[in-house]
Amino acid sequence: MTDRTTYVTFAGVRRRGWTDAMVRDLLGTPDVQGRDPRRWSLTPVRLYLLARVETVERTPEFAETSVLSPARSAAAGAYAERRRSAVLAAIRAEPIEVPRLPGPELERRAVRHRHLLTGRMTGRSPSAPPPSAPPAGAPGVPPVGSLVRWQVSYLRHALSRYEALLDGLYGATGRGEAERLLRRRLYESIAAAYPALAAECRRRIAVER
To answer: C-alpha angle with apex 79: 10 to 58, nearest 5 degrees?
Structure first.
């Protein structure tokens, strides 16, 4: 008997021979979903109970959909391509509104955001008041390069609402393309709003390409 606490990822389900449409229609909502706090990634975590996957694989519905006729397969592929094109067009057209903050306020928020992230990763309680951002070069203050990275990370987090543009796009190839385009647009918008952060934004675009 399969362990009821064993999960399989979305990619793992697809490796078992499932199509995106089959996952959507036969499995529906993942048993576990959300964002992985260990990684900075746009991709949400989607996990399915292996026992549930195996149960569905034994049903007539699974057997029927796993041998789609060429016509249905072509139609599904055409729909996926239309959806991919629509999402990419929406990402290109969406106005990106970056919060405009005075330098000291942006530094303060960036330090606070970093403090909360560090506390979450190390298990420290974030209840203590986070540090403010004293002038660069003061004792205990992060180097200017680190502060720049923290500011970009904070602004990137502040723009996370735009990830909703990816909703409904599940294909591995199409979604990856859309995620890269969205990341590039967000970083370019941050660079335009804060020229002092442009070099770090260009670095991230290159690294995350």
So the answer is: 45
Smallest Cα–Cα separation from 132: which of 142, 122, 123? Answer: 142
pLDDT value at residue 86: 86
DSSP the chain: ---TT-EEEHHHHHHTT--HHHIIIII-S-SEEE--TTS--SSPEEEEEHHHHHHHHTSHHHHHHTT--HHHHHHHHHHHHHHHHHHHHHHHHS--------HHHHHHHHHHHHHHHHHHHHT--TTSPPP--PPTTSTTPPPHHHHHHHHHHHHHHHTGGGGGGGTT---HHHHHHHHHHHHHHHHHHHHHH-GGGHHHHHHHHHHT-
Q: Report in angstroms the alpha-carbon separations of 144 from 69, 108, 117, 149, 188.
A: 60, 14, 19, 9, 21
The domain locations on the chain are 7-93, 103-207
Regions of the chain short of the pLDDT cut 70? 1-5, 35-44, 66-77, 79, 120-144, 168-173
